[in-house]
């Protein structure tokens, strides 16, 4: 959810008025102090490692991270009208006007300088000796942190939106281009590059060409994270789209949040923890955990089973364990009481499966493993002549379903995010035209649909944002999408959930 900005409209509310927003193309890189001050401004976190607290009202103390300046004043420091209150601009030329300030309510004070701005931030008292609204937070921070914050406020006025020039808009993606997932990454990259070429051939978006910066890596997710960090330092991007970083998805999302960097449509294989909120990350599809819950409900409603023995097989993973327990509760709520949770380590799946099958083999299995482990399950089933009903989150192992033994025909339930009927004819033709330019892309149709959908949602939000861009404005446009038709998947609406629901489908394999 992204509503924290609406709770404290009075944050640092000491000045009125606004200046036209300006940008400086080709601004120099941030200094170390400016980088630390930027972190404090956006995240309310100290760059020196010391504690940062905010006091509001009659003495309520909160962590600084609960009340970062950017919540109300925005990424550009201009402020946004909230509930009848307009947070003032924090750009340095406005703060330090040589003739001081005279506010509409009658409060006036002489000119501000570094020392007096620091006093306002820490004590809530201006140069005229006036106390500001007690609801405005007073921040307790080290002198080093204060120096860093002031350095960022001085830089803020000249800071342009990252990745934006007069003629181009640079967007980023992290993809494996070598190793185990190299072919998949190349298929997604080729699709995105072809899509951008078509957009640019028609004039770009508001007169800007779209440029794709790729953070490449092999099969090591740590290398992928390092590549992405290097890209952001080397050539900052306006936003991230799509991408694939299995095994480091939590860190990937955390990085986007820390950098206040919009990320649309990351292709994820890991379950997300219940209750996790994201201000800058927008998921296109539900995670394996939600898919597991949908499968449990759907199977209990549709299958001709009275009280079957059910096994939920899942690897050691905190979020998947949470999903397994939630699915177990769904089964039991439907009257299926014999539901066993079977956790295994990734490198010992065959042994864990053999142990589970020594007893009476279950009639139904909800499987939360990956494609390689599903192949092992199919091999064991073929050997034993065992064919349970099988429930599979499509994002985890959907590609392997085609290798199921014939005995599993009409016994596999698979979650899907789109069906053939969701694809509009013109969109299908456009998508096929793009895919034809990418070698060996048919194997990765689902992943390419994910990348294509992320690109269409992003470009729609960019068009709605207008030429004067900011990351905040882009996020506002994403959150405002309602019943938007990406054309290859069902209509999409965003808001607090930042995503949509999966559907279960009976596979004929």
UniProtKB/TrEMBL annotation:
<keyword id="KW-0732">Signal</keyword>
<dbReference type="InterPro" id="IPR009056">
    <property type="entry name" value="Cyt_c-like_dom"/>
</dbReference>
<dbReference type="GO" id="GO:0046872">
    <property type="term" value="F:metal ion binding"/>
</dbReference>
<keyword id="KW-0408">Iron</keyword>
<keyword id="KW-0479">Metal-binding</keyword>
<feature type="domain" description="Cytochrome c">
    <location>
        <begin position="52"/>
        <end position="157"/>
    </location>
</feature>
<dbReference type="InterPro" id="IPR028081">
    <property type="entry name" value="Leu-bd"/>
</dbReference>
<dbReference type="InterPro" id="IPR028082">
    <property type="entry name" value="Peripla_BP_I"/>
</dbReference>
<dbReference type="Pfam" id="PF00034">
    <property type="entry name" value="Cytochrom_C"/>
</dbReference>
<dbReference type="GO" id="GO:0009055">
    <property type="term" value="F:electron transfer activity"/>
</dbReference>
<keyword id="KW-0349">Heme</keyword>
<protein>
    <submittedName>
        <fullName>Cytochrome c family protein</fullName>
    </submittedName>
</protein>
<dbReference type="GO" id="GO:0020037">
    <property type="term" value="F:heme binding"/>
</dbReference>
<dbReference type="Pfam" id="PF13458">
    <property type="entry name" value="Peripla_BP_6"/>
</dbReference>
<comment type="similarity">
    <text>Belongs to the leucine-binding protein family.</text>
</comment>
<dbReference type="InterPro" id="IPR036909">
    <property type="entry name" value="Cyt_c-like_dom_sf"/>
</dbReference>
